[in-house]
Amino acid sequence: MMRWVLCSLMLFAVVAQGDETDYADLRAELVAEVESYARMAWDTDKNTLSDSVMKSLSTVERHEFVPQSQKRYAYEDRPLPIGHGQTISQPYIVALMTDLISPEDSDVVLEIGTGSGYQAAILAELVEHVYTIEIIEPLFNSATTRLDRLGYDNVTTRLGDGYFGWEQHGPFDAIVVTAAASHVPPPLIQQLKPGARMVIPVGGRFMTQQLLLIEKTEQGDIITKQIAAVRFVPLTGER
Amino acid sequence: MRVLSIVQWHHFAYMIISLALLGYGASGTFIALFRRALERRFAVVFALSALLFSITMLVCFMLGQRIPFNALEVVWDRRQFLHLTIMYLIFFVPFFFAACCIGLALTCRQAHISRIYFFDLLGAGLGAVLIIGTLFILAPQNALLVLLALAVIASALAGPGSPTHRPLLAMQIVWLAFVLAGIPGQWLELRLSEYKGLSQAMQVIDSRTMAVSSSPLGLLTVVESPTVPFRHAPGLSFGTRHIPPEQLGVFTDGDAMSVITRYDGDLSKLGYLGDVTAALPYRLLERPEVLVLGAGGGSDVLLALFNGAARVDAVELNPQVTELVRDTFAEFSGRVHEDPRVTVYTREARGFVAQSDRRYDLIQIGLLDSFGASGAGVQALHESYLYTVEGIQEYLVHISPGGVLAVTRWLKQPPRDSLKLFATAIAALQAESVDRPGQRVAMIRSWNTSTLLIKNGELTKNDIAAIREFARSHSFDVSYYPGMPKSDANRFNLLGQAYLYDGAMALLGNDAERLFERYKFHIAPATDNQPYFFHFFKWNSIREVMALRKHGGAGLVEWGYLILVATLLQAVIAGCVLILIPLTRIRRTWPTGTGARMGSYFFLLGLAFLFVEMAFIQKFILFLSHPLYSVAVVLSGFLVFAGLGSEFSARLTFRSPVTIATGAISAITLIYVFLLPVVFRQFMGSADAIKIVMSVVLIAPLAFCMGMPFPLGLKRLAERAPDFIPWAWGINGFASVMSAALATLLAIEFGFTAVLLFALLSYASAAFMLRRW
Questions:
Q1: Least-confidence region, from A112-116, B172-176, B433-437, B466-470
Q2: Which domains does chain A have, with CATH numbers?
Q3: Is A90 near chain B, with CB under 8 Å?
Q4: Domains, chain B, ranges and CATH?
Q5: With a CB-CB cutoff of 8 Å, which residues 49-78 of chain A face chain B?
Q6: Residue of chain B whose alpha carbon sits nearest to that of A81
Q7: What are the strands, taking DSSP E only, across B385-541?
């Protein structure tokens, strides 16, 4: 009997390890795919994503952030439903957004819209601390537990209104808003440090198409730029 | 249709029209295949079909909503097409049983065929009117209960009633009792897509529903979110120091959010309304008299009051929206409708303007749709007479000299609405023979909205200075003003290129046609004949945008149009599988040439009838100033008079009645193409009752004639090739299934006049087919 139990446990360990290895392979393929798309992004100054962002993408286990029913699609480069009408963003868009805020080791970043916690985890690999706010209670609970379980102790979550930012930890080196509203909340702009950046995806769920990049200059002026996720010219015959 | 519009999005409503007709077609084939067996048991089968119609209405209503179809995920997940097909087949079932009843009656009680057909059409005509009335009183899911009860009563009335059929009687009684008293509330719940605005709002902590009201114009849900309040302020400047006050979200059919803003009579608390792009016209006008088209929850009325309007007339189509602001949330909205400066009219916007003899300093059209709805072509199939060339011409007539028309739209990248609106404005000014249209327009933009001004007169230096100063001080970009250098464009919110400026310059120069041709979205002006302002799809861009869709380009694909094409394909496939292929099992003995000629005859009739009906519904929306009046009057008018025509056709004894009937249809249609615009213009200002009577009078002769060719064709078949009759029904049904989606596609591409002319050609060709047989 004991032998049978041991065999079963060993088999389980091999299968589990096999799963992890499979996920690692799939993640590596995903990273390669995202890198190739990065060349398609438009209106940015560069056509590659920074090494640190790509490293973070290859480290964070996306399959841990999706519901069981979606795990097999976790390493496809697409948004996935996570329940409550919310999605985990497409990895390419996550990478592009993260790259646009040029994260540094010492940065403190605010995220509005925790969702599954995936974007926060990507950021947590790159910066000193991430503060993240969620407005849907079940998502807040599951993301908090998940981030805690995965050991992201430099992420602090909060349930509540993100409109007024998180003043006691601001100003921030960067702010990531995970869904566009009718306007950019003025308090968030105020909580950007001079020289800091804010990025917001524009477009419906499953349909992010533009990224709104807001930069506060050292003088405190605001410059905004719309980054197209794909190279597309609206007139035929133009390149 | 109402249920699908609420739980999914409204373009799936086309699916229902095609499903209803598919039910008819498929039941025709079913009856043809099993005619003998069915004839013997007519009373039982009829009663059973009606009972099953009732039962499956409820079962399919519940099942259909449980299919995990997510329209937004079709880009990423092919299983969604499978889900859509399953949903299509589920909703088909009740229509099949309903159609079986009528088909059986027509087949098995041939002695009373014209009476049955007349009562069928009369019932359909009455139903079209009554369901609209019912939806004013009951929510769609409760209206379903009425339909369930009616079907089971029909089953009981037509049942055999003999003691040998007690089980059937028992089933009828049990089901009726269940319908009237026992259906659990949660069975009738509407399960909205979790990606619709209302579903998302209800997920937010502490949010709750404050009020629900339903009408055929939409299901309104008012939501309060005290912990994370709604703060809807499109186009708000980055530089603003003002924060919008608390708001209530008003969702129509679970989406398209507008808001009711908390207002206590102190306008100084609404400072943000001076910092949105829509505030621009007020920098050019002193205490203007304003007409707001689309009052909604009152946002634009407050915008006008905050910015110093001396008087505000506001027009709102949906009386229940007005009621919410005026009565239900009167305290919250600060009784803004009772402000002595404000008058609210419950009317359709174009009709109100056409009938008004007032002139305004400012006519303001705000954002009536949500950004989500405006994106990705969700509204592509929505006819909108608000943003057409003729519409803008009409508004300009009602603007006093020096006054302004201001239209705010969501700004997409690359631009679609904003550029199309600019093109429409220029076309309207050109149609009014304005010498230098470029001197009368100006446009500014924020990162997500654009506001276009069209002045009744040329913009002065002071106007231009005011526009530039307003834009600069709010970090908005100017996209066009007379004499604008390119260096002024694209300064605050940087785009890859100054798309709007470049587009505006091309539209004002000699390059407009070339721009329409080269632009990868459809931005040629919308007209009353092609009122599809939100249609931007172009076939020659499809390959490129589809290739980009998975890498962040999904928003470039105009999905609404593609779903219509998919609906058409689905209809063709389902029509072949459920109607035509089974018919091949029927014995074929008929004279040579019958198949091709009679097949074409009934196919053309199937297409043409619905083409005329749909084109008329659209054309009468403008005249009757209300989409509901139009649907009710046109649909019931056509059904009732076509029924009378069909009954009358049995009495025709002269030769070639088909030629005469189709000749009359063609002649009347052709006359109407030219006559209707004149009549509409002439009587637009008349009272609603007079216009409704006039509409019925106009529809009657055409519909009367349109009721004849089908029974006359059947009569001819009965004499010469009776075996072909099931095929005639099937082919006619197949054409009808295609026609709803096809008519809309044709209208989008070529306009409603073309749809009518196509119908006319179909009738003429049909007559030709019958003559040669």
A1: B172-176
A2: 2-228 (3.40.50.150)
A3: yes
A4: 1-195 (no CATH), 255-529 (3.40.50.150), 587-773 (1.20.1250)
A5: 77-78
A6: B73
A7: 399-410, 441-445, 449-455, 477-480, 493-494
